[in-house]
Amino acid sequence: MMTDYEKIYDFQNLYKAHTVARRSKRNTREVIEFEMNLGENLTALSDSLKNGTYKMLEYYNFAIYDPKYRVIHALHYRDRVVQQITFSIVTLIYYFKFLLFGIDDFQQYLIYRISVLTVGNKIVPHFVQAVHNYPLFQNIKCYLIIHITHIATSFDFLP
User: Fold this and answer.
1) Do 8 and 86 meet the contact criterion of CB atoms below 8 Å apart?
2) pLDDT tens profile 19-30
3) Residue closest to 79 by CA, chosen among 131, 115, 120, 30
4) 60 has which bridge partners?
């Protein structure tokens, strides 16, 4: 049985994370260059994660003019692959922990987090009630099951 960290640097999981990370970016120069030496790049990424020598590269900047001028700071592609695999594993870890507590506790946790993020560390009871009555939370169990099942089937993470 692999540990959670071993799942991050597993070559097959890194490849699956690459296929997810390249969605709608497949024709960009950075992805094409990464895929030209895909095996070497994923092996180097796996080795650096395994040895603890992985360092995130600096963000690169570019400007867009749609509809106004903005400077965008973006991750390099190899860092997006690591971000994707980490997100998938962490999502599954917390999902199964919340599943043990039950969906109602998970729903209450989400309501608390949204209220804290929105109101700024002050929980306002009427806001929490409004969020609780929002239609999204009426179907949260169905959404979570579909979303997490999709992630779990994309990667070999189910325990």
Assistant:
1) yes
2) 999 988 889 999
3) 30
4) 74
